[in-house]
Each structure stands twice: as structure tokens, then as C-alpha cells.
């Protein structure tokens, strides 16, 4: 259920790398449950290997959002450099007040706008870190 919840918020932010990872997590968990119930050793081995990869992926996400080792949360790495979308929590976190400011300079496209976010109780990167930490705890 935690992976499904995370999948929904990653879809809202158009973060394609986490969407792919969450999708694989959901599929492998289903296979792991089936392998455990039916005692299929190969499925259990696949689930065990995937769990190690899943923990590694979540550690990477924690390092990404905390900008450890030269990583920057301002890059388009999570969207495969396809789009400029970011974490959904950036603008919709608890207590955040989102304000759209339209440019007043001539020659700028009408549909272009700047989003100002203020008053967040907790910054979006910490919400992402919490989500990844929960995934790691559930995996262990």
C-alpha cells in the first residue's frame, strides 16, 4: 500500500524514474507474495534480490533530495530529462500556500507563470526523504 501511495504522488509530479521503480516494486511484491504462498523458491529469490535493489534505490532518493555527494534536487534526473516537472510535494505540501505570478514583461508568453510557494510546515525534500525511509523500513 505504501508503494501504491507513493506511485500516486510520483504520477502527480510526473517523476518518471520513481514511477518506473514503484511499478516494478508493486509487481515484484505481488510475485513475492505468490512465491511465498505457493513456495516457489525462484520467486522468493527474485523478491530478495529486488528488495536489495529497492533499498538501494531509496537510499539514492534520500541522497538525491538531501543533495549528498554532488547530487542536486534541481536537476531533471527524476524525469529522465524529459520535462521540468518536480516533486508534487514542492507546491502542495502541508501548510504550503501556492501563488501563481504572471509575468508583466512584454513579449513573454501568456501561459508562462512563476509559482511562489510559502508557509510550508515541512519542506518537500524532507517529505520525499520520509517516504523513502518508510519504504526502507518496510523492506527490512
TrEMBL record:
It holds the Pfam family NKAIN. GO terms for cellular component: plasma membrane. GO terms for biological process: regulation of sodium ion transport. The keyword Transmembrane applies. InterPro entries: Na/K-Atpase_Interacting. The chain crosses the membrane at residues 16-37, 44-68. It is a multi-pass membrane protein. Belongs to the NKAIN family. This is Sodium/potassium-transporting ATPase subunit beta-1-interacting protein. It comes from Tinamus guttatus (White-throated tinamou). The lineage of its organism: Eukaryota, Metazoa, Chordata, Craniata, Vertebrata.
Amino acid at each position: 500500500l505504501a508503494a501504491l501511495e507513493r506511485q500516486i504522488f510520483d504520477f502527480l509530479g510526473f517523476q518518471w524514474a520513481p514511477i518506473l521503480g514503484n511499478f516494478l516494486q508493486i509487481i515484484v511484491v505481488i510475485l513475492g507474495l505468490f512465491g511465498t504462498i505457493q513456495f516457489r523458491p525462484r520467486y522468493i529469490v527474485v523478491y530478495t534480490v529486488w528488495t536489495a535493489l529497492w533499498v538501494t534505490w531509496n537510499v539514492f532518493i534520500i541522497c538525491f533530495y538531501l543533495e549528498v555527494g554532488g547530487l542536486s534536487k534541481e536537476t531533471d534526473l527524476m524525469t529522465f530529462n524529459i520535462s521540468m516537472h518536480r516533486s508534487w510535494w514542492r507546491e502542495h505540501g502541508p501548510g504550503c500556500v501556492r501563488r501563481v505570478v504572471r509575468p508583466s514583461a512584454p513579449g513573454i508568453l501568456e501561459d508562462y507563470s512563476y509559482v511562489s510557494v510559502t508557509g510550508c510546515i515541512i519542506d518537500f525534500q524532507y517529505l520525499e526523504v520520509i517516504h523513502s525511509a518508510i519504504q526502507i523500513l518496510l523492506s527490512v
